[in-house]
Design goal:
The structure is a single chain. The chain has 21 helices and no strands. With 569 residues, it is mainly alpha-helical. Helix 3 packs parallel to helix 13 and helix 14 packs parallel to helix 19. The two termini are 34 Å apart.
Length: 569
Amino acid sequence: MDVDRAGLVHDYGSFPTQPLPIQRAHRSIAAADPKSAGGPGRSESGELARAGRALAVAGVVSRVTGFARTLVLAAVLGTAAVGDAYNGVNTLPNMIYELLLGGVLAGAVVPVLARARRHGRKHSREFTQRVMVGAVLTLTVITVLTVVCAPLIVRLFIADTGQRRLATGLAYLLLPQIFFYGVAVVVGAVLNVRDSFASAAWAPVVNNAIVLATCGVFTLLPGPVTLTPGTMTTAQVLTLGIGTTAGIVGQSAWVVAALRHSGFRWSWRARPLPYTLRPVRVGMPILGWLLVYAAISQVSVAVTMRVAFDHDGVSINNYAELLFQVPYGILAASVLTVLMPRISRAAAGHDHRAVLADLSRGARYLFTALIPISMAMSLLGPTFATLVFTGRVDPQAARLIGIAIACSAFGLAPFALVMLQMRVFYAYHDTRTPTLINLVMVLTKVAIVALTATLCTGPTVVVMLGVASSFAYVTGAATGHLLLRRRHGPLGFRIVAASAHRVVWATVAAGATTLATVFLTTTTISAPTLAQITTLTAGFVSGTVVFLLTAKAVGIPELRVARTLLTFS
């Protein structure tokens, strides 16, 4: 269960990434980790490379198409009242789903299905079918009730009458996504325990493609030259709402098709309701804290949305958040996907030393990948956002998106570390500790947001929404480290600190080179667009070359992981 920058799972075009099969994961780390003893042979490395490449390609295509979707939506809707209404309301289905069911499905159903699989194929199949029936019935009830309450939900976040009217109309069309989010997560869990992940990884691409097509249809509809909540036509509202929901429907349908392709067959097992809900009762020991976790997260989401609406910054914060998530989704999620099965198996076997070894290994990989990316986002983020968003949104909004990315980039590595720590606790079926860590993060973010909203105005408040999230991740990572150390003793993080120290030195060298390149290009090229393109290209290339050369000089063996995952043999 990942926390986004509002305090909860929310990611454009994303889908819960399925873990690699346990045996593949075991081989992958042994092959990629330079500190592992007895790595596999050439054939096993080739198997890892093919599996890792398939997952990486799907992730990259998903992020690229998702970014294209973001740009097109920004160009079509802008960042003013219409864009804010759409982006804010489109967050509600995920928010409500996670509050009511997300923690239950992600935290309880998956372990229960995995446990049932140990009792034989027939028992596992029947048990899984009962889980799916119970989930479908529950999702149907919750979705219907939420759609009925759409006006009340919108009123909690939006004060402007005209904007509220548009948001309410969109809410009726977008809130049905709750049902399809839930179906996708349940089906994804079934694929997870069946060691099938590659096909489902392409599901977000389907979603992105449908939304892009929706934007194309939207632009062809007759309507006002300038979009405002009061001038949008009924056809425009219907196209936007139905098309966006159709994207989630298509994503869910793709995952269902992947499940069917894996050999699983759906069957309605009509049993008495208590029997149908037995899987939920089995997971009850961990459900309570998961629900508390979700409820705490929603406090952060609600505060962020309300402050963003009050300062006309919903779209700006949303687009900055999406860009922040891109390197995590491509780099960090792949590492966590590989490590999670190993950590879970080691925890189940009470091999605490192996758990801590994978925690250390994961932290080294994450820092190696994300610390230099954070530097690049800080230095090149404003130029990148200005280049890609100018002409699609107001120039001031494009500049604010870039500033928000640059100011909050320091939270990227702590964010990934928190996600790794959470997985260690979940591997031990501990949902209480992650809830406490989440409470610390939410309190940190809410305090910073409230203080900023009180003392500052306008753009500063919008930028600080992302900065508050990053500070929250720093406190969360520190809290998680202390709690893990309290439970397991020394975590062996001296090697992590040494690795991070080398990465920081390489990053500083690369950052200085990039900064010098930025200064030279911006002062010698007068044409704005050419200067931006040259700055990004030259800054990225020069920084990357210097980082790799410095990394080779100081010795950062974790970089071999990337080479292993991107090589066929």
